[in-house]
Amino acid sequence: MRNSIGLTAMALMFGVLAISGCGDGRPTRAPVTGRVLIDGQPLTVGTVKFVSSGVRSSVGQLDGEGRFSLTCYEKNDGVIPGTHRVRIAAKESIDENTVRWHAPKMYADESTSGIEVVVDEPTQDLVIELTWDGQEGPYVERL
């Protein structure tokens, strides 16, 4: 009787670990979804990337409503919890020598974006607000 209780407890523990995803040998991730707005309007072109020292980055593609879902190892699995600097590269190629920026270029580099997000748990509906800050946009850049 005592062995069957122990086996049942062990099976339950392994089941919980399998469901929670902790058994894949990778760091724990927290799912993150949200929207990017520029001057109050959805940013519909570009990628969002969360970057943190010593851990794998996470990235998400913006959709037609400015929404994103972050991927670290597997689709939509989120980010490794912690403090992340954020970059938003909102550009589209027009041709091999020309791009159109849909947000100021400073946001495309985590060291100049000024955006930092702390993720401790699953996060839905995170809103990241950008601004043209009086600049005219979108604008075209020749490479």
Automatic annotation (TrEMBL):
It comes from the Bacteria. PROSITE patterns: PROKAR_LIPOPROTEIN (PS51257). This is Carboxypeptidase regulatory-like domain-containing protein. It comes from Pseudobythopirellula maris.
